[in-house]
Automatic annotation (TrEMBL):
It holds the Pfam family Uma2. It comes from Streptomyces yangpuensis. One of its GO terms (molecular function) is endonuclease activity. InterPro entries: Nuclease_put_TT1808 (IPR012296), Restrct_endonuc-II-like (IPR011335), Uma2 (IPR008538). Residues 12-177 form the Putative restriction endonuclease domain. This is Uma2 family endonuclease. CDD domains: DUF820-like (cd06260). Keywords: Endonuclease, Hydrolase, Nuclease.
């Protein structure tokens, strides 16, 4: 895509009126629509958000993230930011520079996007920590140390933990308890 095509796609995406209950994201120039999440998914997000100390961090849901150099406006399941990093008047799009951790909970239709596409997008944006929670595999994968750009961007470090094992989120000074995370067949 050219810069003009990227701009047109972004403008079209931002003017799109999605039906109620449908999540819409722009991922590398592709508009992706998904049905609302199931209860297991929502409870995992809730259990993670409750473990983030609100005096030091804001766990935000349904927050779109702006990633410069990418024709993407993802809406992670959970965005964690330090209160002092929130820019005034940022509106719908939170600048990726303010993000400390992004969380995605895998659904039946999002596996490739969460493990491949968003991994690359978030690494290209310099997101310091990306946590993938997979209720189908009953595991969490914490990715840190982003490097590279574009489609080739990735994370140098990947730490995988099974559900019920603690997940240290060193950048937040939190150890995540995953014992309550539900699984899906």
């Amino acid at each position: 895509m050219t810069a003009v095509d990227d701009q047109r796609m972004t403008e079209f995406f931002e003017s799109l009126a999605a039906p109620e209950g449908v999540k819409v994201e722009l991922l590398r120039g592709e508009i992706v629509m998904m049905a609302g999440p199931d209860v297991v998914h929502n409870l995992i997000v809730l259990f993670i958000a409750r473990q983030i100390p609100p005096d030091r961090w804001y766990p935000l849901q349904t927050q779109d993230v702006a990633i410069p150099g990418e024709s993407s406006e993802p809406q992670p399941d959970l965005v964690v930011v330090a209160p002092e990093a929130l820019p005034e008047g940022s509106g719908r799009l939170l600048p990726v520079q303010a993000v400390s951790l992004l969380v995605e909970v895998v659904s039946k239709t999002s596996k490739v996007r969460d493990y491949v596409t968003k991994r690359s997008i978030y690494a290209a944006g310099g997101v310091p920590a990306y946590l993938i929670v997979d209720p189908f595999e009953a595991k969490c994968t914490l990715l840190t140390e982003p490097f590279g750009g574009g489609d080739q961007a990735d994370y140098r470090t990947a730490r995988t933990s099974k559900f019920a094992e603690p997940v240290p989120l060193d950048g937040l000074g939190v150890t995540l308890d995953t014992a309550e995370f539900g699984t899906l067949p």
